[in-house]
């Protein structure tokens, strides 16, 4: 037997065998939106109504900022519609009195004419008001969504990189993306809720004027409907939560089967038929779950309608008794029947609106929470100006630990980068090289120690000015889905560039042949996903990346730093030698170049080489000094040289090989 009055609980979803086999259990995303998934179960009419002012307040404030005239217009038209509903009921009452009054048929028709005309007039005015409200709300909705989206994007791009690396904050970014669309839907739900409330108040007012017993009757009829709507909403919410568990798993499989990156293994390893079979099995269990929930919903709706019907019958019974005992006229009873019907419809709609507002507000609240936290974690906008000329950039005893890590990625690292020099940083995987580059560029601020441009600490400097002096080419540099020209110009997007302006950067990077091959040259769109676009190979992209870096550094006349992190991983041997040569040539009196790479051949000509090991600075010096000291660098160099030279030609290092340490 279904327990109608117990709390709706979120049942642990059934896990199909296929899910267990593939994922070891249910697939639960660590995604932000799931954080508030249980908040929906707190959905009782009382709690939703109590929270209503706070929930609606934030959206209305946004709407007020977006277009206050449109907001006022919506409010006026909705209030006027409520008044029209009351006037319409009074007109109906007058018609009833005329219809059921005494006199000949012609006399009664004469008498009811004004009431009829009034009702028709009110209906016309009412529909005009509804149209006005719809058009103004239609203006507000996209405005509110745009404002909320802009706030979201602006806040997300303004936070420190450390926040982006923080899993908790990432979850918040993820969840907050749903806020703007919810804010837009809340406008519609607010308008509907206002409409239902005002209609209800108007109906209740008219009923009280007609007869004091009618208002309680309305409530008795409408209460079961309200309860039913709320109960169905809760069950729908729970249904969605259970359903979504299965949906995630089957969507993931569907995505994998059609993804380009998986296409080769899907075919060669026969992963396709295997995953398709598991997909079907998951779909079966998801369908069974949906069927079960649909049946439950049907029973709840039936129970709510039955209760409402019983209440209606009882009310009509009381009404008949009131008429029979002379306490209520037939005309008032006729009007009351109409009013009770429209009143209970308004109450049902109100319950649904409150419910929708509550659901949407969960996302809007997360959006607000994100904006608050993003403001706290934003890159400070103030700070001291960075001098045009500096002699060196110094890292002094820098320690950096990622928010979710126990041990530091960099531990008391010190190095000096004089302007005009080329510095190489080498080390095994995970030794902290990329982290060092992020600290150097001002993207991460060290927890201990300082990064200084001469004597000025980066933490005290205006960070936008620091960024302006940094050119960064990382191994996973962004392959923007824009034209080839824009992919280069985007290195300094606020600097206008004609194709001729970009030519030195293209020549520098050896990207000329890549561009020539493209159908529309520099104007070719580089994004496989769009029609007419072209996909470049990894090595070709690296040349575009190098051209972008050249464009960025060549458009900065002040003293600057150029950081290149694994720039040649996808280049063929010839192109790699050329690329290292080009990078070295970028060193200029007003520029310090830092090169991070695993390719030892590329670093031997650097002015200074720093070797990182598990976040510590293991050794530093020139290539010859480091080879002579037979330490870690010599071991790494020997290991790579051994791949190309006969073993007899390789010096025998005293320190352990890289493989011994891995
Ligand atoms: N965003 C991050 N969040 C948490 N830990 C990180 C993050 N990035 C790097 N780490 C950790 O910090 C340590 C140093 O990583 P880093 O990427 O700086 O090494 P690397 O020397 O550049 O490695 P590779 O040669 O493989 O690119 C590693 O243990 C890594 O797991």
Automatic annotation (TrEMBL):
Residue ranges occupied by any ABC transporter domain in the UniProt entry: 393-639
Q: InterPro entries, per this entry?
A: AAA+_ATPase, ABC1_TM_dom, ABC1_TM_sf, ABC_transporter-like_ATP-bd, P-loop_NTPase, Type_1_exporter
Q: Any keyword ATP-binding?
A: yes
Q: Which residues cross the membrane?
A: 70-92, 302-324
Q: Does the keyword Transmembrane helix apply?
A: yes
Molecular function GO terms recorded: ATP binding
Q: Where in the cell is it found?
A: Cell membrane
What kind of membrane protein is this, topologically?
Multi-pass membrane protein
Which SUPFAM superfamilies did the record assign? ABC transporter transmembrane region (SSF90123), P-loop containing nucleoside triphosphate hydrolases (SSF52540)
Domain ABC transmembrane type-1 intervals: 70-359
Q: What is this protein called?
A: ABC transporter ATP-binding protein
Q: Can you name the source organism?
A: Streptomyces kaempferi
Output the lineage of the source organism: Bacteria, Bacillati, Actinomycetota, Actinomycetes, Kitasatosporales
